[in-house]
Amino acid sequence: MTKNAPITDSKSPHEETHDEWFRRKVQEGLDLADSPDARWYTHEEVMARSAIRRAEIMAMIKSEDAN
User: Fold this and answer.
1) To bridge 15 with a disulfide, which of 11, 24, 34, 47 should be the other Cys (CB 3.0-4.6 Å)?
2) pLDDT of 30-56, one tens digit each?
3) Domain that holds residue 52
4) Would 21 be classed as within a structural domain?
């Protein structure tokens, strides 16, 4: 006869199911979004930053193609 491990409420990360992990991560994100320190960006700000980054990447690609 084998002895079973005691049942505890806290699980190590290795014992956590994917569903439990996913729900924990979603809750962490919601908590972060609800934080008074959260920084929100407008759609326009995100699109402008993305355009700059795309232009930088395209410039790097063109300079590599020139070599």
Assistant:
1) 11
2) 999 999 999 999 999 999 999 999 999
3) 42-67
4) no
DSSP per-residue codes, the chain: -PPPPPP-S---TTT--HHHHHHHHHHHHHHHHHSTT-----HHHHHHHHHHHHHHHHHHHHHHHH-
The CA–CA distances, whole Å, from 9 to 12, 16, 19 equal 10, 11, 16
Cα gap 53→48, rounded to integer Å: 9
User: Both tokens of residue 43?
Assistant: 């759609």
Does 28 reside within a domain?
A: no
Beta carbons of 44 and 53 less than 8 angstroms apart: no
